[in-house]
Write a structure and sequence with these properties.
Low-confidence stretches: 16-23
Structural class: mainly alpha
Number of strands: 0
Radius of gyration: 22 Å
Number of helices: 11
Distance between the termini: 85 Å
Order of helices and strands: HHHHHHHHHHH
Largest sheet: none
CATH architecture of the largest domain: Orthogonal Bundle
Helix content: 55-70%
CATH topology of the largest domain: Tetracycline Repressor, domain 2
Strand content: under 5%
């Protein structure tokens, strides 16, 4: 026969539950909201729909997210972070900044019209990436800028880029070029050809960050 739990043990378990609950509940709400956005679309999904899906009251949802706009922003911010991080394995497999940027560009092109990521368009056919590019572009850019910081630091250590380079500014340059590959057609490059995209990006996009480029600009 097991001994009854002591007050100290019970109090310890309750403290752990209280510590976990604030983190678990917002994630539960965000999971439910993402499913509702995917099923109903950005415009139709309501706080009541999310509460029902999450199995909690509307008041609980409003306690963590003051209004629908705040909830949608949080869903899109989490989705942007997930999308960016999902490219990391492919990018890490490359050994130079030029090829890493090229791999990220390929990742974007391959997922622009794919169904790898959950849709948030209520059956209207837009992918998660397309939604992020239209509804949360600022958050998408910010996530990508943060993503590139360690890669730029490593590139500087290898001597591939100028040591005095503003790395956040350089990261935004990289991100803007990559996103242009997603939304703008090309007159000279077959953007559906993975090898062509890799070659195009490797040859041109990071050349302006290299030490030799900085020396030429100062002359």
């Amino acid at each position: 026969m097991s001994k009854p739990a002591t007050k100290a043990a019970t109090g310890s378990r309750l403290a752990i539950v209280r510590q976990l609950r604030p983190r678990a509940t917002p994630d539960r709400i965000l999971d439910a909201a993402e499913q509702c956005l995917g099923r109903l679309g950005m415009q139709r999904a309501s706080m009541g729909d999310v509460a029902t899906k999450a199995g909690m009251s509307r008041g609980s949802v409003y306690f963590h997210f003051p209004d629908r706009e705040a909830l949608v922003r949080a869903v899109l911010a989490r989705a942007a972070e997930r999308f960016v991080r999902s490219s990391e394995k492919a990018v890490r497999a490359r050994r130079t900044l030029a090829t890493q940027v090229a791999e990220a560009a390929v990742f974007i092109r391959q997922n622009l019209h794919g169904d790898k990521f959950q849709k948030m368009s209520g059956g209207q056919g837009d992918t998660l990436l397309a939604t992020l590019l239209t509804a949360n572009l600022e958050g998408m850019v910010a996530s990508w800028v943060d993503f590139w910081q360690p890669f730029l630091a490593e590139a500087a250590a290898r001597g591939e880029i100028r040591p005095d380079l503003d790395r956040r500014e350089a990261a935004e340059w990289i991100v803007r070029i990559m996103l242009s590959l997603a939304v703008m057609p090309s007159a000279v490059v077959d953007l559906d050809d993975v090898s062509a995209v890799r070659g195009f990006v490797s040859r041109h996009i990071v050349q302006g960050l290299a030490p030799s480029a900085g020396n030429k600009q100062r002359k």
